[in-house]
């Protein structure tokens, strides 16, 4: 028992009193670390101890005590009373070695040791040889401080890339020698810079400084334009378009496009060179080209090194004339105070009269200015068009003309129509109703119209069970109506006039409550209007 107590406790006799002190233990010792030049690290040294005793931490580096009180540039003690962590800022190669943390109390002295390995990044990255698609690089591995490098990673970037990208890996074989590697698969006539990153079993280190920015040699362009198409333009024109080639794929100076075309059925290609590197369109003009003639078209690329790849063949049609004929049989009729319908006969077109893609309708009033003329279009073989949003009781003129990619043709002779008078402005009034079983009877006064309004032709009764349900419509020429509806719910009803000018104003919404004992069958009810 005495041996156990002696092992766990220290005895103190002070002023005739016997005290037992808790043993000091290093709970978080420093551990071996593998770092790269320029990093900042923390070596831990933390203890548990008797609170009544003071603790002193002393750090040594390679056998020499580190004097933290002199404000050493790279070393700093951090932590509280029971924490003696050592921070090393901006670590250098000279800081590689053994670090000893000594913990000292009035009764005990403990220590823990750890190795810190500082590795330098690869150095002196140089480009030794350049071709159109390769770079040959050399570099020195940099100090490894007995932490052998296992692999090198070569990274590159260009003005067109986002960040650095790994392009090659080189295993470490000749430790301490100058290394050489060839990076392949690069694009011609593009500026590259390189850097090297070393790695071992612990991880990867800091990258080397980038090499100088160098451009690969030029070569014949190999990427052909895509999306070759065209068409449109004026008569006697062949319009050819394509997607331009980005700078990083042009492979050299003097870049341009070779546009080749021939009429379908011909064996001879016409070639035109377009020297502007950002071009994506070429227009060929020749009076002998007939409208809408089909051509085989392809586009190639070239630079100072020679002619490159060519796109696949596309069919492109030459420009066309505007339609030469005006539509016949144009007519117009009024549907309401704000809507008319214009109709016409379709044009049977051919190569001589011009293709028709659709029709354009113009409409105006007697007092219209040019800016007030309305225009609307329909595509295809449509021969009618409703025009809305017009003024009531107004004379409108309308004309129709055909259009295609070249423009519009001649207009048909104008026709005119007068829109209907405005619909009645007064709603039905004095509406009375009564319930009898499932029958709802309605009565109201006839609506009288003003001189500038359309005559009342009838009435619409709109009814629904609630505001969210579907609205039903009953039309009548009288001033009374009967509805057969099951009154299991409240009903909402409104009545509006019907005229040539359109629907008139609606009455106020009437709520018809569901059948109950408080409603006597056959009794007439009228809202307090």
Could you describe the 3D structure shown?
GO terms for molecular function: cell-cell adhesion mediator activity. Keywords: Cell adhesion, Cell membrane, Disulfide bond, Glycoprotein, Immunoglobulin domain, Membrane, Repeat, Signal. This is Contactin-6. Pfam families: fn3, Ig_3. InterPro entries: FN3_dom, FN3_sf, Ig-like_dom, Ig-like_dom_sf, Ig-like_fold, Ig_sub, Ig_sub2. This protein has 529 residues and is an all-beta fold. It has 5 domains: 97 residues, Immunoglobulins (Immunoglobulin-like, Sandwich), CATH 2.60.40.10; 93 residues, Immunoglobulins (Immunoglobulin-like), CATH 2.60.40; 89 residues, Immunoglobulins (Immunoglobulin-like); 88 residues, Immunoglobulins (Immunoglobulin-like, Sandwich), CATH 2.60.40; 94 residues, Immunoglobulins (Immunoglobulin-like, Sandwich). It contains 1 helix and 44 strands. The strands form 12 sheets. Strands 4-12-11-7-8 form a 5-stranded mixed beta sheet, with no helix packed on it. Strands 22, 23, 25, 26 and 27 form a 5-stranded antiparallel beta sheet that branches. Strands 30, 31, 33, 34 and 35 form a 5-stranded antiparallel beta sheet that branches. A hairpin with a 7-residue loop joins strand 15 and strand 16. The radius of gyration is 47 Å and the shape is flat. It starts with a helix and ends with a strand.
List keywords for this structure.
single chain, 529 residues, mainly beta, Immunoglobulin-like, 5 domains, 5-stranded mixed beta sheet, 5-stranded antiparallel beta sheet, 1 helix, disordered N terminus
